[in-house]
Design goal:
Number of helices: 5
Order of helices and strands: EHEEEEEHEHEHEH
Structural class: alpha/beta
Shape: globular
Distance between the termini: 13 Å
Strand order of the largest sheet: 5-6-4-3-2-7-8-1-9
């Protein structure tokens, strides 16, 4: 029985856009959404980092292009390529969202958005625990994104990909404009089974 829906595909293919379109399509269907998206931050046309944005519009830093001095105010510095991950900012915004969803009432039609489970987010052990708890939570379905396999496997990503209660859609430039109805239909089925 499928309970969660995840999208995967190369960077920039439109996973976040599709997640937002699924949320928009299902909002009027008496479905409650919680969770977060990851958005690029651009200055003068150049990507300078990523923000985490809740479905209600709160925003916090996930990462920014790092400076070469490495000054991190005495904290350990987490890096993905040129980006320095702001773990305290990410955790202070994302982790309370998980606590709200895992304490909810049974039988309600709730979707928790996790965009994404990627390298930056996986520096947080608390995030990893929260994702696992939410995957096992009876009161909600997850609509999330995961990166395509590349290089060294990411433990939690492979765990999600291998779960029997997860349906993974691979998003490509060829299918991104036509796959929305299938994703919505699958998520609706997940919610029917949960209620």
């Amino acid at each position: 029985m499928i309970k969660h829906v995840f999208l995967t595909g190369p960077p920039g293919v439109g996973k976040t856009t599709l997640v937002q379109k699924v949320c928009d399509a299902m909002r009027s269907a008496d479905v409650t959404f919680n969770g977060f998206y990851t958005e690029e931050v651009r200055v003068g046309g150049r990507r300078v980092g990523f923000d985490v944005v809740t479905v209600t519009g709160e925003r916090g830093h996930l990462s920014r292009v790092g400076n070469e001095s490495g000054a991190s105010a005495g904290r350990r510095e987490y890096r993905v390529g040129q980006y320095v991950v702001d773990l305290p900012s990410f955790e202070s915004l994302a982790l309370p969202l998980f606590r709200q969803v895992t304490g909810g009432a049974e039988g309600s039609r709730r979707v928790f958005v996790i965009d994404e489970i990627g390298k930056m987010e996986l520096f947080s052990q608390a995030f990893i625990r929260a994702v696992r708890q939410t995957l096992d939570c009876r009161s909600c379905s997850i609509l999330g994104t995961i990166p395509i396999p590349k290089g060294r496997p990411l433990g939690l990503v492979e765990e999600v990909r291998g779960r029997p209660d997860v349906k993974v859609f691979t998003i490509t430039k060829e299918n991104r404009n036509s796959i929305l109805p299938e994703i919505v239909s699958t998520l609706q089925q997940c919610l029917k089974q949960a209620s």
